[in-house]
Write a structure and sequence with these properties.
single chain, about 90 residues, alpha+beta, two-stranded antiparallel ribbon
Length: about 90
């Protein structure tokens, strides 16, 4: 099982963290956003700060299996060169 963070395509990490924290209550929202902002202020990436803020409150999503991959399969054309499949 993997613990992950996620967000919508047009959502910032801060917005995603705020939405997830809000589900746990207003005190959690204020504390979690403060932790997120402090981590970003220290130079951490937003994704890492989001993971830390949500992990502290046990609000990560739990995923069964190997997880996600963005790797596309390599398809070899008949001429021996690699080609990209049409989607």
């Amino acid at each position: 099982m993997s613990d992950i963070i996620k967000r919508k395509l047009r959502e910032t990490w801060r917005e995603a963290v705020a939405a997830r924290l809000a589900s746990a209550g207003p005190e959690t929202l204020a504390e979690g956003l403060s932790a997120f902002d402090a981590a970003v202020g220290r130079g951490e990436g937003e994704a890492e700060a989001a993971h830390a803020a949500l992990s502290h409150h046990n609000l990560l999503w739990h995923v069964e299996g190997a997880g996600f991959t963005t790797a596309a399969p390599i398809i070899t054309g008949t001429d021996g060169r690699h080609s990209v499949p049409t989607v």
